Amino acid sequence: MNEQYVEARIREFSKKRIFYENFAEQVLNILKVIIKEEYPDIKIASYSKRAKEIESLRKKLRKDKYNETSEITDLAGVRIITYSKKDIPLIAGIIKSSFDVDIQNSIDKTLSLGNNKVGYRGDHYVVSFSADRARMPENKNFKDLKCEIQVTSLIAHTWSEITHEKGYKFEGELPEELERRKNLLAGMLELADLEMDAYVESFDSYVSKIEQEIEKGCLKYQINSMSLERFMAWRFPDIAPQIFRDVDLILNELRLYGLSTIKELDELIRSEYETEIRKAEWRSLDGIIRNILILHDAELYFTKVWNPSMNQMNRKNYELYQKFGVDVDRICNEHNICIV
Asked: Which of 3, 84, 134, 269 has its C-alpha lying 20 to 30 A from 178's C-alpha?
């Protein structure tokens, strides 16, 4: 490659780099909005965007496969990393329906590896704005620009980062033993990716089963964070948004109180207390559950569960306990609790 031409391309890109940065940001913002709207339950590990670094472009232009007519399609870049590999096709569908995709320069790394090789797996799409989107005032500066969107799983991304720093930059072939170990590691990570998908599917199935059975009044489930959250959403649907300030703490309190199933907790709820909840408009599920326990058996709670370091009581709760016949003055006196 002609070095003068390389430097001329670098100077040209340096002047426009800010446009590519803004373009990548705009592409990413569009994707975030659409993903949230169409698939609100998808968990994204991270979003990122960038314009190509000057030195990275210089090295790319110096490679033999590039010449003066070669198009560089990754001057702007967006990366979406999912926790689960199964979400990648959903995001790919959004990309294809939201942008013009340069099929020739896009690549499915999984397909390119084939069935007999291991390594980085992910989808890379080179996109530009459609004519309609490019006409929008906020996009007019980005007409005809191209952006590479990479969509991959967190595990596959980890592999990519490791090999990019420790493998791809190694000049020449790796020694046989290192190559073998690298391939073994790639295989292990691919299996981990598959197992993660299987786990997520089983997890979602378990959560769905809990929701369906609790809706039918089946409360046989052991108390854990998932079953407790689903139960509270079912039992107190008027509370929105529902907030757990420290779910691990309240799970421990339930255990110390002697409860192990959702059914046992449900049986403690007094109908009069439900009325008070609606009137008071409480949002903290921790406090609501704690009050259920105290109103059912204050002596048990303050003997077995109460943490002495919690030496203050909210006046709103104090008045609630009084209203329901709890000898709260004696309890506060015995446990050195002050009313605030």
From this structure: 84
Answer for the pair 6, 58: CB distance below 8 angstroms, yes or no.
yes
CA 4 to chain CA centroid, Å, is 46
CB atoms within 10 A of CB 265: 23
Residue 331's φ and ψ, nearest 5 degrees, are -60, -45
Element (H, E) at 222: none
Tell me the DSSP string of 82-147.
ESSGGGHHHHHHHHHHHSEE-GGG-EEHHHHH-SS--S---EEEEEE--HHHHTSGGGGGGTT--E
Residue closest to 317 by CA, chosen among 336, 294, 297, 285: 294
Assess whether the previous peptide bond of 308 is cis (omega < 30° from 0): no
DSSP state of 11: H
Helix locations, the chain, DSSP H: 3-38, 54-61, 88-98, 109-113, 131-134, 154-163, 176-215, 225-235, 247-257, 262-266, 271-280, 285-296, 298-300, 315-323, 328-334
The string of pLDDT tens digits covering residues 7-47 is 888 999 999 999 999 999 999 999 999 999 999 989 899 99
Report which secondary-structure segment, H or E, holds 46: strand 44-51
Its pTM stands at 0.63
Picking from 262, 313, 312, 321, the residue whose alpha carbon sits closest to that of residue 291 is: 321
